[in-house]
Amino acid sequence: MSGGVDSSVAALMLHEQGYEVIGVTMKTWDYTDNSGGKRITGCCDLDSINDARNMAVSRGFHHMIIDIREEFGDAIISNFTSEYMAGRTPNPCVLCNTFIKWEALLKRADMMDCELIATGHYAGSHQNDDGRWVVSKGLDPGKDQSYVLWGLEQQNLARTRFPIGHFHKSEIRKMAMDSGFPELATKSESYEICFIPDNDYRGFLKRKEPAAFKQLAGGQLVSTSGAVLGEHDGYPFFTIGQRKGLGIATGEPMYVTEIKPQTNTVVLGSKDDLQGTTMWVRRPNFQMVEALDGEMEAVTRIRYKDKGTPSTISMDGTRVRVDLHAPVTGIAPGQSAVFYVGDDVLGGGFIDRPTATP
After folding, report:
1. What does R_g of the chain's alpha carbons equal in angstroms?
2. Is 44 labeled as catalytic in the residue annotation?
3. Could you identify which of 149, 200, 212, 295 might form a hypothetical disulfide with 314, taking C-beta atoms 3.0 to 4.6 angstroms apart as the criterion?
4. Domain holding 287: CATH number?
5. What would the pLDDT profile of 321-349 be if each residue is shown by its tens digit?
6. What average pLDDT score do residues 230-254 get?
7. How crowded is residue 346: how many other Cβ atoms within 10 Å of its Cβ?
8. Do 16 and 97 belong together in one domain?
């Protein structure tokens, strides 16, 4: 329970259905010590923790706070920093769901003899004809969160329920209002990364790696032909597809098309230079099948709000090769590629550089 309307209503629904509910809020980060002196807003701060506890107490079920700062820091924050330093663009929510939230929740669930865990994600799950558990899209297309759940493995999915996955956000807010929680029903949403509540990831990286960034200042901005266009303060400050904040004026729109950490170089090109039809995906996890056998047809999403592109996927060593049936813009190493068959998640993985070895 993050203190937001979604997880709160999920808990409320299960409580009203007769389940013995224990609300759990995770403390992941020392916001006051690591905010860079800026005002803190977002999920799981002290106010949100209190909102979750008050809601649970008012309905008569238990609530607890678990401290996972050490686990979170080792798995999520260290990866976030190292991925940017490697010239990739990480998605910490995917790692958090896979390696922290579910593992931490199930560990505590076992300690309390709880059979199931539930979350406020807009997604669903079911068993297919082979008995495998599969994540499916949430009913509300504007809130669907199946994209960040591709990493969940079978033993974890089997014990997971998504109570609000078959509802629209507007219905969830109405449920909160009708249940006597108007403050939850009207609560604004946070879209920032939870450990960067001020949304300043550049400042966060500077605080984490001050010495490295001193050495990276003065790197080159170059065109796709190799012509030097200017200098930058460090390649980790750039992401594939970025147009604003490049620090130069060229008279025509320029986009980040490649990041080369070995040479501290950022390559700029036209929008056409961002187009791609092939990519490789590392560390895949499959839900619908145990493993890929030959080629499969799927719709591939390369970012959270991506509508998806029909594609053919196959194994290429330890990676998945994705041949897209139409060009897509801004394939960014480090982001997730998620494969769908209909509304179900076939699997997913992390986008790799084309030149990287498996």
Report:
1. 22
2. no
3. 295
4. 2.40.30.10
5. 999 999 999 999 999 999 999 999 999 99
6. 91
7. 24
8. yes
